[in-house]
Structure formats: C-alpha cells, structure tokens
Amino acid sequence: MKKFYRPLLFALALGLGTSCSMEEVAPTPGLSQTTSSDATATQDSHLAMGNPSGAGTSYSNYLVSKPQFVMSYNSYRGTPNWVSWHLSSAWVGSTPRQDDFRADTSLPSAFYKVQTSDYTGSGFDRGHNTPSADRTLTVADNSATFLMSNMIPQASTNNQQTWAGLENYCRTLINAGNELYIIMGSYGVGGTGLNGYKETIAGGKVTVPNRIWKVIVVLPNGSGDVSRVTTSTRVIAINTPNSTSISSTWGTYRTTVDAIEAATGYNILSNVPATIQSTIEARVDNGPTQ
User: Of the listed 46, 66, 77, 128, which one is catalytic?
Assistant: First the structure.
C-alpha cells in the first residue's frame, strides 16, 4: 500500500536537528534492462511522475516551478527538500557552463536569499541538484542551474566524484535514446566536509544535510511517459552519506525507492499506478553503472 504524505512526518524528517542514516542495500540479480528508442527526444513536464511531498505554499515545503526544473524549497533549511527534472537529449546542446552562482530573488520576500558567499570557507561545495551539464541547450537554461536555491552544502568527494559519476552516466543513457525523470533530495542534519563535521553554515541560515539521495526513472524516448512505466521499467535509487569518506562508485549506494520514502515521508512516484509502484519501488537496480 502506498504512503500518504504526512505533514508531521515531513517536519520531523526535514526540520529537526537529528541525523538520519540508512544502510545500503545490495543489488539483486535478474532485472531487465531498458532498451533505447528511435523516437524524437522532447522536453517534458518535470513533475510527470508526481509531486513527492505535496509541495505548495508552506515555507518548509514551498513549490518553486522554473522552466528548467521544479523543486520543494525549505526556507528554514536554506536548501531544497527535493528537485525534480526531466532529462533527454532535447535539453542538451553546446552552451558552456555559466558559473554565475547567485541568490534566487524570485523566492518570497520573507525567505532568506542564500548567497554564494554563504558557502565560502565552509568546507562544502555548492552542490547542484539539477546539474549544469543537464541544461546546456541555452544560456538561460544553464544559468538557472546556478541559482543558490538549487544548491546544497555537499562534501567535495560526494559532489565531485560519486555524484559526478552518476550524472555522467545519466547523460550516457540519454545519448542511447532514453529520457529520464530525475528526483534528487536531501534530509537529516550534519555532514562532514573539508573542515570537518558541521550541522549548519552561513551562521545557521543553511542546514548541512546528512544524506543525499536520487531516484531516476529510465524510459525509451516517447510520449505518454507515465503510462509507459511498467513493472519492468528501470528505476535507479541511491542514497549516500554527505561525507568526504565516501566511495567514488555510485553503484555502492543503490537502494530502493521504498527505503528513501520511509526516510523522508514522501510518495516519490505518486503519479505511477500503485500496483506498478509496489514492484518498481521495492527493487534494487542491478544495471550497469557506466
């Protein structure tokens, strides 16, 4: 049976100062692999698979919709709860990395606008949720990924090795004729960066997450995407510690969507029929990692 979003559980998972952790689950054998399609790649809805936390107007669960991605923003943490985006070759071009980190002035006036300088000397990277290299069709698309609302304080090894490897792998999948629905989030309090363990930075305005997760739904290029999700659809779920002491191999951290939902209180693929969710969310991916 699928879980319903509970505000109390959401607040406990995201707003309190207790650390969370999760044991990694070993992949199971025998899973089918996604095959590519010759269909034309398109740009599709970032929330096709659902709104995991029922984000709306709450300051701890504020829905932010941009052309490049959609997020649930937590003004009390100074970071997204999650960011969701569609990725296909239709989003990728030759635009160079803009590197124009800046505050997101579109957030409500009551929210603190995180500055790029808030990360200076913290020992943590300005870790993208939606990666720069996933949005290279136009300057505007790439620039949007450098808004500080799209960042979390991320340990350098985690960001530059483990996550970079997974992000690169995702782009190999779209080059093979697939489209992806990606949801990335973080939860808990306290991570270990270059300057050691910290629970907050920027004088307490930005919370350092304890865990960082991602769910990736892989489909051949096509239309009617939710209706094409079946019990054999490849779904990759990983959950990593926010630490410099982390394996550079992202496959080490594969887990189930169910486990991430249990830790966060979310219903991550809420638009997928429950009978299909029950199968794909309980399964650990065993596909290739490069």
Answer: 128
